[in-house]
Design goal:
The chain is α/β, with parallel strands linked by helices and 384 residues long. The protein contains 12 helices and 15 strands. Strands 1-3-2-4-5-6 form a 6-stranded mixed sheet, sandwiched between helices.
Amino acid sequence: MRAFVKWGVAALAAMTAGLGAGAAPAAEPVKIGAFLSVTGPASFLGEPEKKTLEMYVGRLNKEGGVEGRKIELVIYDDAGAPDKAATFAKRLIQNDGVDLIIGGTTTGTSMAAIKVIEPAAVPFISLAGGIDIVEPVKKWVFKTPHTDRMAAEKVFADMKKRGITKVAMISEDAGFGKSGHDQSLKVAPLYGIEIVADEVYSPKDPDVTAQLTKIKNTPGVQAVFNFGFGQGPAIVTKNFKQIGMSVPFYQSHGVASKKYIELSGDASEGVRLPAAGLVVAEQLPATDPQKPVVTAFKKDYETAFKSEVSTFAGHAYDGLQMALAAIKRAGSTDKAKVRDEIEKTSGYVGTGGLVSMSPTDHMGLSHAAFHMVEIRKGDWLLSD
């Protein structure tokens, strides 16, 4: 079996239309590349991202493409492996000749690929949460999701409001989990939060009862905060309930998918986390500028795929929309011009929030883009 999966939305009609006698040559397609974790431990993030890109590129091509140019989409599955992500990023640039790259489902795969993409001077919009992706600012790198630091700040602000001051951390020991852990330790004191226990686990661990038992036996713990994504947080959630812990339990935005609730089962009841407005689209007030955007996207996705939308699908939607808007404003796929226009993104209302980027901010989201939600009876409840 080949070590990668490649899907293309080919602009065949556009490229062959000019083959008839006297016909004008067809315009070159806009080439968009992506490397996503469609399989592997981050598949419930990467698979909806892939579906979203394919759905909207297909729709746009039926409508004539971008400025009369069809879109050619090339996607590789890195299975969550950073080394594969770097290899595929190189392939997209050198072999496929893409104009722009959208992808990097995880922080680890994004950071590995940046080492290839940044020197090659190709615009890159990451779909991962780690703050290191955009801080310090890298000329050619942007991202759509809220950062791990923002998630920690939102959680600690909620804890402070509820009178919680002594917190136990448990987090994955690599990538997104490690970055979120480190950012949590940095910002906790700003909210009067003391980290009284600090445990880690591997994303592949089948059980974290030992770490949670240490936390349970730590005097004074008022809440537990887990930072991770994929199946790991679901295992933590189940073990949390199994050992009879009853303090408030918080997760990060890395689990803002119904898949997490399905994997955790009844143990997820009462879990609180920060998430984009997409997961509570119908619960947003009518005056919220995001409401028409997230409700329309939710309807599109769920109609097409017969499954509930996740914030990760929304990250891909926002990345594609901002990329294509930048290409339109640039009037070409000249990489430097497109990069400049992405950086000038202002007032974009997406599934993740209101985005306004700048030379010093390559994400463009504020804390207002995050909502606190709580899991109740297998669904999300807006809990701001």
